[in-house]
Structures are given as structure tokens and as C-alpha cells.
Amino acid sequence: MGSARNRQIVADRLAGESYAMITERHGLSRRRAEKIVQQHEQQVQQVSMHPVYQHVGIRAINCLRKAGVNPEDIDAISQYSRESLLCLPNFGHTSLAQLEAYLHLMGRALLGRGHYARATKTRSSTGCSDYRERFLAR
């Protein structure tokens, strides 16, 4: 829910405006306005439910989801190495640091405590496609 219009729709609804007023003001269907508000409510509920959403950035969470890994499953996440995570598209050192800090809080760690320099070298080499294939095959 990144657009200013969507944020305004949610704000209007939280302020007590009816869907009829919202749809008239923003020029969209009632169904679409309801969907925007529902998506916001789901995001709020999701963030408040599990601690991973408070400690790990949305980019890292989305990268894990896109790779088919449930970000709430600590056991599944801790089975991967730094190198295999860094090979995921858009998963960089900041995402890795956030994920490792979260796992540390939970008393877990990633496999293979390699160094960031080694992970950077692996990412730029052709071996990254091998990691990506193995990661997605799990």
C-alpha cells in the first residue's frame, strides 16, 4: 500500500467516513475501496502477530517469500547459508544483517558462519546461479 491515494482512503475510513463518500471523492468503486482498506488491515494484523515483522525489513521478508520460504519459520530460515541468501535477487548485506540479528535474538543462526567478503565474492561469480537453484529446490 504505497500510494498516497491508498493511504488517504485508509485514513478517511479510519476517520469514520462511509465507503460511499470515499468512492465519490477518489473516483473508484466501492469494491476497490473495501479491498484497499482490507489490505491495510491485513498488513497491520500481520505486523503485530509475529516478531519477524518487527525485526526484519520488508525487503528481506519479500525476498524470502518470493523464494518460497515462510519468513515466520525460523527452522527453515536457519537451514540456509549466508551465501545462498545473498544469491537471492534483491537480498543484500543489509537484509542479511537484519535476518542474522533476528535469528540471534531467537537463539538461532544461519548455516556456515562465512565472512561477508566471501559472500560478496560468491555473489559476483557464476556460482550464484548454482546457489539459487539449490535454494529454490528446497
Condensed summary:
The chain is 68% helix and 0% strand. With 138 residues, it is mainly alpha-helical.
Largest sheet: none
Low-confidence stretches: 114-126
Radius of gyration: 19 Å
Strand content: under 5%
List the secondary-structure elements in sequence, H or E.
HHHHHHHHHH
Number of strands: 0
Overall mean confidence score, pLDDT: 81
- Count of separate DSSP helical elements: 10
Structure class? mainly alpha
Gap between N and C termini = 31 Å
- Overall helicity: 55-70%
* Global outline: elongated
Structure, explained:
The chain is mostly helical. Helix content is 68%, strand content 0%. It has ten helices and no strands. Helix 1 (4-14) packs across helix 3 (30-49). It is elongated and about 55 Å long. The two termini are 31 Å apart. The model is unreliable at 114-126 (pLDDT under 50).
